[in-house]
Design goal:
The structure is a single chain. The chain is an all-alpha fold and 138 residues long. The chain is globular, with a radius of gyration of 15 Å. The two termini are 18 Å apart.
């Protein structure tokens, strides 16, 4: 497991890679780290949620919300926007399902705790875990 300073360094390096092709996602990544430093958990969580949403919009070349990118009819992950994209890249269905499940869990938490609510009863470690998991998906 990475210690916090290693995780932050990794996030900064990742943010730098986003700069040229995904500037909106990159700005939100940077903002999420800044908000976390200031203990603004709600803003940090919302910013990293938006970073993932902006990145998916860029990669999938559409303007759909995070929820619409991950929505799947009858639990068929290959029919979600993300599933279709990953399938087109010849990714194994088991890996697509795994990634989609993690992304969906992150999306539900982000909606409940950040987009439509406040991160009540979440500790610094809880927020850091959520942010790290979102970075991994990205």
């Amino acid at each position: 497991m990475l210690n916090p300073s290693d995780a932050i360094k990794t996030q900064q390096e990742f943010s730098g890679r986003l700069k040229d092709n995904h500037p909106s996602a990159q700005r939100k990544c940077d903002s999420s780290r800044e908000m976390m430093k200031l203990n603004n958990y709600s803003e940090a969580g919302e910013d990293i949620r938006q970073a993932l949403e902006f990145l998916l919009k860029d990669i999938l070349n559409n303007s759909k919300s995070l929820e619409k990118q991950l929505k799947q009819p009858k639990r068929d992950v290959l029919r979600s926007e993300l599933g279709k994209y990953l399938s087109s890249k010849n990714m194994d269905k088991a890996n697509i399902t795994f990634l989609s499940d993690i992304a969906s869990s992150i999306m539900h938490m982000s909606n409940d705790r950040f987009k439509h609510g406040e991160p009540i009863n979440l500790t610094y470690k809880d927020i850091r875990f959520y942010m790290n998991e979102t970075y991994l998906i990205m």
